[in-house]
Write a structure and sequence with these properties.
Layout: H1 3-14, E1 16-22, E2 28-34, E3 37-39, E4 42-48, H2 52-60, E5 62-69, E6 72-84, H3 88-94, H4 98-101, E7 110-124, E8 132-138, E9 147-150, H5 159-163, E10 169-170, E11 177-178, H6 188-192, E12 198-201
Antiparallel strand pairs: 1-2, 1-5, 3-4, 4-7, 5-6, 6-7, 7-8, 9-12, 10-11
């Protein structure tokens, strides 16, 4: 699937997400926020100007979000921008339940935020014996490779494969290669490697 497929899934299929900011006490704070729109430029959500959440968004200009449905999840971390009432009418048109929460001109209490630069991942465990992981990018965030990677000192002993829950290591080559799209990031391969050549990144 493409980045846009994941954004569509986030907004149209999952919709309700857990969004984290930093609270006034310096600790992470979460709340459930509906993702209202998506396009090739990112994802859009809104909140009322009187909420503490609004103040945190305006000050921090950064969020982390996570959403799960039917054992499939989307997680993103990135930069946001307040775009005021832009797209507000479109949001109410595509999400008619909002018209009952904020009827008439009471919608003027709301402002729209745009997640315009982010990175994250899609994770699917609906088939537990064959998980799927993929990266998601919005805009041009700083690239961070995460996961376990095998170095050139690999001797091809196959011990890593023997302890891998998903058997997602290609042992037909040397150094062996971990399939990042199926890796659980459990770290068992790195623990058992006799040459300590399996490196965790990100």
């Amino acid at each position: 699937m493409t980045n846009l497929d994941y954004l569509k899934m986030l907004v149209e299929d999952i919709h309700s997400t857990t969004v984290a900011t930093i609270g006034a006490d310096g600790h992470p704070q979460t709340r459930t926020i509906d993702m209202m729109l998506w396009d090739e430029k990112g994802v859009y959500f809104l909140t009322a100007k009187g909420k503490a959440f609004y103040s945190q968004l305006m000050e921090q200009k950064y969020i982390a979000l996570s959403a799960t449905k039917d054992k499939k999840s989307v997680s993103l971390r990135g930069r946001i921008q307040n775009i005021g009432s832009e797209k507000l009418d479109e949001i109410f048109e595509k999400n008619p339940y909002m018209q009952k929460i904020y009827p008439g001109d009471t919608r003027s209490a709301l402002e729209v935020f745009w997640l315009y630069e982010a990175s994250g991942e899609y994770f699917d465990i609906s088939d537990p014996s064959h998980v799927t992981r993929d990266s998601i990018v919005i805009g041009q965030p700083e690239s961070v490779m995460s996961g376990y990677f095998v170095g050139s000192a690999c001797i091809g002993c196959k011990l890593c494969y023997s302890v891998c829950p998903q058997k997602c290591i290609d042992i037909s080559v040397k150094p062996v290669v971990i399939d990042q799209s199926r890796c659980l990031h459990c770290g068992r391969c790195a623990e058992i490697c006799p040459k300590q050549t399996i490196e965790k990144r990100g």
